[in-house]
Amino acid sequence: MSTVVIHDPTLRDGQHAVRHQLGVAALRGYALAADAAGIPVVEVGHGNGLGASSLQVGRAAVSDDLMLSTVREALANSRMGVFMLPGWGTSGDLRKAVEHGADVIRIGVHCTETSLAERHLGYLAEQGADAHCVLMMSHMASPAELAEHAVRAVGYGARAVGIMDSAGHFLPRDVTERIGAIGEAVGEGVPVIFHGHNNLGMAVANSVAAAEAGAGIIDGCARGFGAGAGNTQLEVLVPVLERTGFRTGIDLYGLLDAAEFAERELMPAPPVTGSLSIVSGLAGVFSGFKHQVLDLSGRAGVDPRDVFFELGRRQAIAGQEDLIVDVVAELSAKGAAA
Questions:
Q1: Model pTM above 0.70
Q2: How many other β-carbons are positioned within 10 Å of the β-carbon of residue 322?
Q3: Could you read off the pLDDT of 54-79 as tens digits, one per residue?
Q4: Residues 6+ positions from 53 with CB-CB distance below 8 Å
Q5: Which of 198, 208, 231, 298 has the smallest C-beta neighbourhood within 10 Å, fewest atoms?
Q6: 262 vs 23, 47, 51, 62, CA distance in Å?
């Protein structure tokens, strides 16, 4: 029976769904529940990671320092994870995360821009930190391209490397091809990561495909808490993996209790695969764009589905929120001229 390490970004990726407004009591309560369930890694932070609290992507209710210290105190057994996108966060943010006792530090980059992580992964390697690199919007690159960038990330100092299906675009065969190619390229000593989104209702199936293709670290969020249609639903993923033949070491009842807490205390309602989430997945657009697309298209009287498909045609990537403004303005102008 193979072992899969579960990484739980409920308190980080879930922030997208509530505009980064999780408070101290919610952070502490879920961290305690996840720790009691034996979840190996609990990730915390602004939805866009360290240093991202801003007017552009949303002010967090709680500072990075307070989020990290709160969750660190609550985790007696689980490791604490953090996430950073170069450009939002800096080496100074990484230094503070290490000082706060972050055990796992992930650097996220667009799937073909691994060089942006070189300096940060190098810094973390010097600190002896468990540094990971995740390639976002991975449907926009071939398996061979992803494998090439994964090898680069390992060369920069990443101890684990993998992909995010940031738009929820993949089917299981897509995941199998990409995880297989990465695993073969980086070798057995480097765990491969998979992080799924549920836009097309495939997140659990894709995660199982990843494990079967050799991924050693799989992400999942309680009740699928996350942007748009949400992430892989953790309390479904774990028993399905166990039934499939993968050991997670997580206590089922504790996991279900953590999910109940999350639904009751973290979110207004669990995410659903709504119409816009389906369009976002088909178009291959970052799920985190949902609120901005809805807000801007609503004020301009533009169909948000058209906005998503146009963003997909333009190959918009995470961090290009300004492009939403341009697309909405152009579609609005076309509508007025028609």
A1: yes
A2: 10
A3: 988 889 999 999 999 999 999 999 99
A4: 20, 46, 59, 60, 63, 64
A5: 298
A6: 13, 16, 24, 18
Instruction: Please state, in angstroms and rounded to a whole number, the distance separating the CA atoms of residues 268 and 285.
Output: 24
CA neighbor of 281 nearest in space, from 178, 200, 194: 200
Beta bridge partners of 80: 42
One-letter identity of residue 137: M
Q: What are the φ/ψ torsions at residue 245 (nearest 5 degrees)?
A: 115, 15
Count how many residues are written for the chain.
Answer: 338
The answer to whether 171 touches 145, Cβ cutoff 8 Å, is no
20 is known as an active-site residue = no
Name the catalytic one among 7, 16, 120, 139: 16
**Spatial separation of the C-alpha atoms in residues 117 and 63, rounded to whole Å:** 24
